[in-house]
């Protein structure tokens, strides 16, 4: 199936998120290749983590060619409670060149989105709450994260650490045809991120009566991977426009809820 200019593929009709992709292995400490289709990426297993590299990943009604998807079989929550997808998905946005991540927070089960900018970007090193408001950055719930690439795992490539790390995919994991030619030489990207755990969001793991009441009052909905993907690429487009000195680009995904709906962010 042909890939479009934004890195996505045509609307999909195949397997749903959460479909079993690989069996487990008893070799807990080893990084084991358990499936290899040449140009169609590969699957690895290490302990409780399965890593899929260089294959299309379902984001809502489309497939996105991702660099890596991590699945954790930790027994902490049933797959349905974690929205049915991977625990972390990483890719390079074709339109902007920025590295992007969607990560599932534990134990809440809600999704977070991140975009990394390189040194030289006008906002490199800025704290998320210190960005000039006149830039008009708009993303779900507002920016809630800003930091340099987190330190990597040990040389043994412990995948369980990579699942929680906010940084680009290590070169050693990414397939040559899809990723290694654009990987930075150093872990020095600066990441901006947002969360889907506001009062207008359904948080699968939240059982607090007050939060459920506020969610009902604000018409809270579940923010799935398709929605978060659109928010991530729109954030990447805004950050690219700032770097290029261009006006804020038109939004391609759904507009996020007004910040004023969340009492934690109002005012």
Instruction: Name the helix and strand elements from N-terminus to C-terminus, one letter apiece.
Output: EEEEEEEEEEEHEHH
- Computed Rg: 18 Å
Uncertain stretches of 5 or more adjacent residues:
9-27, 77-84, 175-182
Classify the secondary structure makeup into a structural class: alpha+beta
- Strand proportion, as a percent range, falls in 15-25%
On the 0-100 scale, what is the average pLDDT? 78
The N- and C-terminal alpha carbons lie at a distance of: 48 Å
Please give the number of β-strands.
12
Q: Count up the helices.
A: 3
Please bin the fraction of helical residues.
10-25%
Question: What labels describe this entry?
Answer:
267 residues; alpha+beta; nine-stranded antiparallel β-sheet; three-stranded antiparallel β-sheet; 12 strands; 22% strand; globular
Describe the structure concisely.
With 267 residues, the protein is an alpha+beta fold. The chain has helices spanning 159-162, 209-217, 225-244; strands spanning 8-9, 32-36, 42-46, 49-53, 56-59, 62-65, 68-72, 88-92, 99-104, 111-117, 145-148, 190-195.
């Amino acid at each position: 199936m042909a890939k479009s200019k934004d890195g996505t593929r045509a609307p999909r009709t195949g397997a749903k998120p959460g479909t079993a992709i690989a069996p487990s292995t008893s070799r807990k400490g080893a990084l084991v290749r358990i499936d290899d289709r040449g140009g169609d990426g590969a699957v690895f297993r290490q302990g409780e983590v399965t890593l899929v590299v260089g294959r299309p990943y379902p984001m809502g009604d489309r497939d996105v060619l991702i660099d890596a998807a991590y699945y954790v079989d930790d027994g902490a929550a049933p797959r349905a409670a974690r929205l049915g997808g991977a625990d972390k998905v990483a890719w390079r946005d074709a339109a902007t060149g920025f590295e992007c991540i969607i990560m599932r927070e534990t134990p809440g089960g809600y999704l977070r989105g991140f975009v990394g900018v390189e040194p030289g970007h006008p906002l490199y090193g800025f704290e998320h709450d210190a960005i000039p408001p006149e830039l008009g950055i708009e993303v779900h719930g507002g920016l809630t994260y800003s930091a340099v690439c987190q330190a990597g795992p040990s040389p043994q490539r412990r995948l369980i650490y990579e699942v929680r790390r906010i940084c680009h995919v290590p070169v050693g994991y990414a397939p040559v045809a899809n990723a290694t030619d654009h990987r930075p030489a150093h872990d020095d990207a600066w990441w901006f991120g947002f969360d889907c755990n506001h009062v207008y969001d359904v948080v699968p793991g939240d059982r607090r009566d007050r939060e459920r009441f506020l969610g009902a009052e604000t018409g809270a909905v579940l923010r799935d991977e398709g929605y978060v993907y659109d928010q991530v690429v729109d954030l990447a487009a805004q950050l690219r426009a700032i770097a290029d000195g261009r006006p804020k680009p038109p939004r391609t995904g759904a507009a996020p809820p007004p910040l004023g709906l969340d009492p934690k962010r109002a005012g």
